[in-house]
Specification:
This protein has helices spanning 14-17, 40-49, 121-133, 170-173, 176-181, 186-193, 221-229, 232-239, 266-269; strands at 32-37, 55-60, 68-75, 78-84, 114-117, 139-143, 148-154, 158-164. By secondary structure, the chain is of the alpha/beta class. A 4-stranded mixed sheet has the order 1-4-3-2, covered by helices on one side. Strands 5-8-7-6 form a 4-stranded mixed sheet. Helices cover 24% and strands 18% of the residues.
Length: 274
């Protein structure tokens, strides 16, 4: 398999190198969490001025009419994104669309609150003071044992937290009472603590048929059926939009770096359903 780019280090994928993914491969972070907004400017300004997170992208959302997409940076591989559509509702319904704080109820499957990481308790306290210096109230710090946190609100009633902590030990932090109330047996817990591995097959798997018992993206059924029937290679070719809206790179990227275009042959993208 070939992967091409204009300049910079050569990108290699598994088939090009003869390597294989680790059987215990799993997502290793949040690349971006996308939040709905009706005021892109207010969100970008809050995250920049109050939290110090720089804006890294602002463009028309790919494949979505009349919709803005903005990204603020937490780290080089982690972002908060915002999606502004003219159809976005603007009024919160407490306990339905918004929790209002880090403890109150909200509709299942929605975000209850968002916790952002820093490296130390000193950093938590520094962020507390930065946020308060902008006139925003902060609750905390609070010591939860495995993390230490402060709590505050963002624009459009976002429920936010900044915390520090890592390497949670499930031997200490899985409460047997809560485990039982969740209907999780000891055998099931063992599988949750050590998930099964996965060996990638030599050939890409075809798309499974629609199954109402499985999670699925919400589209009108005819649209869903057409999208999910597209071969992966056709999705890659027809829906990818790799070029940035501004081709001139800023000074941040350095003089020897250009945007790269990745080309993946159909064999490696997969056959889809055909």
């Amino acid at each position: 398999m070939s992967v091409t780019e204009s300049t910079g280090p050569h990108l290699s994928l598994y088939r090009a190198t003869g390597a294989a993914p680790a059987p215990d491969l799993h997502p290793n972070g949040v690349n971006h969490l996308a939040l709905s907004t009706s005021d892109m400017k207010a969100q970008l300004t809050f995250f920049a001025d109050v939290l110090g997170c720089p804006t890294r992208a602002l463009y028309w959302m790919h494949g979505v009419a009349n919709t803005f997409h903005g990204f603020v940076e937490l780290a080089g591989d982690s972002y908060i994104a915002f999606v502004q559509s003219p159809a976005n509702p603007t009024e919160p319904v407490w306990g339905v669309t918004h929790s209002g704080n880090a403890g109150d109820p909200v509709t299942a499957g929605t975000m209850q609150h968002l916790a952002l990481n820093v490296d130390s308790i000193d950093d938590v306290l520094t962020m507390r003071d930065r946020i308060r210096s902008c006139g925003v109230q902060v609750l905390g710090p609070i010591d939860h044992g495995m993390i230490q946190s402060i709590y505050f609100a963002g624009p459009e009633h976002l429920s936010l937290e900044i915390c520090t902590g890592r390497d949670i030990d499930e031997r200490q932090w899985v409460d047997p009472e809560v485990q039982a109330l969740c209907g999780i047996t000891d055998a099931e817990l063992a599988q949750l603590v050590e998930p099964r591995g996965f060996d990638r097959p030599d050939e890409p798997l075809v798309q499974p048929p629609f199954d109402e018992s499985k999670p699925s993206m919400h589209y009108p059924p005819p649209v869903r059926d057409v999208l999910m029937a597209l071969p992966d290679a056709e999705v890659w070719t027809r829906l990818s939009v790799p070029d940035p809206p501004v081709r001139q790179l800023s000074h941040r990227a350095g003089p020897n770096v250009t945007h790269r275009r990745v080309s993946v042959p159909e064999r490696d993208v997969g056959p889809g359903t055909v």
